[in-house]
């Protein structure tokens, strides 16, 4: 369609602005209420089909841009050139398609387009495409759902693995702490035994010191002399005992060695794992009918070569001039002229047949 204006085309020419209520595809313009009535009564347009402008506006924009008239000559398309696959007006045929032989009447080409096999196959193809689109969409929806379910499974597996690792580390820690306490108790027992012996020896030494002080103060010299020998032996034994403890005693320190595998968890294990995608071919069967052969939208029309056209004598015209160059016009179809300049004395006008 040449225009998308909502104003009446006829009234626009009269510089009157009236809203369009119907659209005439033949005239390629909108009509107001008054012009619609004249349009339906005028002999040249009474058979034109009009549609409400609201229905016209429902057509796709690219379809509305398709005009019934030639943009170059402003004449209505009446011819179709199969070679160039384009509609032509009478002037286009003479100017640009005069050497094209595969030209037919446009009406014969388009009259059955809406019921043609090509349109039926296009509609069937759209049905197939719609079905296949639904299948593919459903497939990807299921894939999306499977992705979500698999993500949950992996997350649960990771959580379970983490719990196992935690439980195993907890057990290792518990065993290690138990061992730590056991070693500590063993060493504590040894040290306590030594301390107990030292305390006992310390008490005995204190008793000897008190005994010597009493003997020294209250005993006779003979008693002192005889007792001193025994006291010396006892002191010597205690000193020897302390020497043995001092020589055999060691300073014990508590240390531990970490398992290298546990130490390497932080330094060597950089991630819990790796996420990757595995792809496979889409296992759905698309609806596909038997292969279609390419068909032209135009109807099949029996073409006749120009040599087979036999003109009939319709009228003889005397040119009243000798050897005058005139044009002979053959009417092949409505408004289509093929002009051939030749030198004749008479011009024959043929019928449209």
Automatic annotation (TrEMBL):
<keyword id="KW-0862">Zinc</keyword>
<dbReference type="Pfam" id="PF22586">
    <property type="entry name" value="ANCHR-like_BBOX"/>
</dbReference>
<keyword id="KW-0175">Coiled coil</keyword>
<dbReference type="GO" id="GO:0045087">
    <property type="term" value="P:innate immune response"/>
</dbReference>
<dbReference type="GO" id="GO:0008270">
    <property type="term" value="F:zinc ion binding"/>
</dbReference>
<dbReference type="GO" id="GO:0005654">
    <property type="term" value="C:nucleoplasm"/>
</dbReference>
<dbReference type="InterPro" id="IPR047153">
    <property type="entry name" value="TRIM45/56/19-like"/>
</dbReference>
<dbReference type="InterPro" id="IPR000315">
    <property type="entry name" value="Znf_B-box"/>
</dbReference>
<dbReference type="GO" id="GO:0061630">
    <property type="term" value="F:ubiquitin protein ligase activity"/>
</dbReference>
<feature type="coiled-coil region">
    <location>
        <begin position="137"/>
        <end position="171"/>
    </location>
</feature>
<protein>
    <recommendedName>
        <fullName>B box-type domain-containing protein</fullName>
    </recommendedName>
</protein>
<dbReference type="GO" id="GO:0060340">
    <property type="term" value="P:positive regulation of type I interferon-mediated signaling pathway"/>
</dbReference>
<keyword id="KW-0479">Metal-binding</keyword>
<feature type="domain" description="B box-type">
    <location>
        <begin position="10"/>
        <end position="53"/>
    </location>
</feature>
<keyword id="KW-0863">Zinc-finger</keyword>
